[in-house]
């Protein structure tokens, strides 16, 4: 697997993203049409009608990104509202569903970020890695879904972010999750990233695990109000798909699936043992199958209804000191496609 390299202003980056991944973007729209119907009974056209409600917050807090959204639409031959809907899909209906992502930061021999991203298998084919060099900004790499402006990744300043979905019916003002993730990836340092979650706020609940090369790391349980914070314990922050910061749990109702605490407990158990500070050892941890089918490395559980079957679609390990991202597409326990990207140091 190779990253898609995008350069220029936001319009140029968007157009090239859309052009190179037009087929994947159109397929993503079909996938989310099915997902919307499965989760909340909404068609794609109905979802398109909901997305514009988030434009005022984006125009207020991150207006420049809308040029990129339009560029993606132009490059892919779709409408602006299609790309907006993809990027607001969490807020529109997918807070009703929770994936199975397991994430951690580790400050040992440098600052590491790692996670599995678990979702429906029919979106596997639409995973892309975007290496973006926006004019006047430090390069960044984002691993996620075609047509979306940002998700999991890092930048050349040595700042990175991971994501855990939270199932909740809360949705309010602030940046939609994927716009907030991209804004964080454009931040020069941890303090600037913190301002995105503290001041801009995020429209619907999620967990953002933010870390930087200088050893700062915090888990932010974001939502429209003040985020809950999870500081490192023994150099580690761990998270799955339920809220457990006291401040968040007191004001946001979440509806986690039973496997989330199981995976969190297993992560803690594995990271309490000695572990090598190198990508292979961290991928081995992400490949753990204890407590299957509620394992860190998720395989399809055919006992669940089809709409609720989640599996690991990619695993990522980031060394923020070296600005190096390692990706395994598919389940990390299997010998599938892999990628390594190193960004030139900035700042």
In a nutshell, what does this entry contain?
33% of the residues lie in helices and 24% in strands.
Q: Can you tell me the CATH architecture?
A: 4-Layer Sandwich
CATH class: Alpha Beta
Class per helix and strand makeup:
alpha+beta
Fraction in beta strands: 15-25%
Helicity range of the residues? 25-40%
CATH homology-level superfamily = Penicillin V Acylase, Chain A
Overall outline: globular
Strand order of the largest sheet: 1-4-5-6-7-8-9-10
Radius of gyration: 18 Å
Q: Please tally the β strands and state the result.
A: 14
Organism: Modicisalibacter ilicicola DSM 19980
Domain Peptidase C45 hydrolase: 107-332
Protein name: Isopenicillin-N N-acyltransferase like protein
Keywords: Acyltransferase, Transferase
């Amino acid at each position: 697997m190779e990253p898609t390299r995008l350069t220029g202003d936001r319009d140029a980056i968007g157009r090239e993203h859309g052009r190179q991944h037009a087929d994947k973007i159109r397929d993503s729209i079909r996938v989310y049409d099915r997902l919307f119907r499965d989760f909340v009974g909404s068609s794609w056209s109905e979802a398109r009608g909901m997305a514009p409600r988030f434009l005022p917050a984006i125009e207020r807090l991150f207006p420049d990104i809308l040029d990129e959204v339009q560029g993606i639409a132009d490059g892919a031959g779709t409408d602006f509202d299609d790309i907006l809907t993809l990027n607001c899909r969490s807020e529109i209906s997918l807070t009703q569903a929770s994936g199975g992502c397991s994430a951690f930061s580790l400050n040992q021999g440098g600052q590491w970020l790692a996670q599995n991203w678990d979702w429906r298998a029919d979106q596997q084919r639409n995973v892309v890695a975007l290496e973006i060099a926006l004019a006047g900004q430090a390069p960044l790499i984002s691993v996620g879904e075609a047509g979306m402006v940002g998700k999991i990744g890092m930048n050349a300043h040595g700042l990175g972010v991971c994501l855990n979905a939270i199932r909740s019916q809360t949705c309010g003002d602030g940046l939609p999750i994927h716009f907030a993730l991209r804004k964080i990836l454009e931040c020069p340092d941890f303090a600037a990233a913190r301002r995105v979650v503290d001041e801009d706020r995020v429209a619907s609940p999620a967990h953002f695990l933010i870390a930087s090369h200088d050893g700062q790391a915090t888990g932010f349980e974001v939502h429209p109000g003040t985020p809950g914070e999870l500081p490192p314990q023994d150099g580690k922050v761990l998270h799955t798909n339920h809220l457990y910061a006291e401040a968040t749990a007191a004001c946001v109702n979440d509806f986690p699936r039973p496997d989330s605490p199981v995976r969190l407990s297993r992560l803690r158990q594995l990271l309490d043992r000695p572990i090598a500070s190198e990508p292979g050892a961290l991928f081995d941890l992400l490949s753990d199958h204890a407590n299957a089918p509620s394992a860190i490395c998720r395989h399809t559980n055919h006992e669940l209804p089809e709409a609720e079957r989640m599996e690991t679609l990619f695993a990522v390990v980031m060394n923020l000191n070296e600005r190096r991202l390692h990706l395994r597409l598919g389940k990390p326990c299997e010998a599938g496609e892999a990628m390594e990207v190193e960004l030139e140091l900035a700042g």
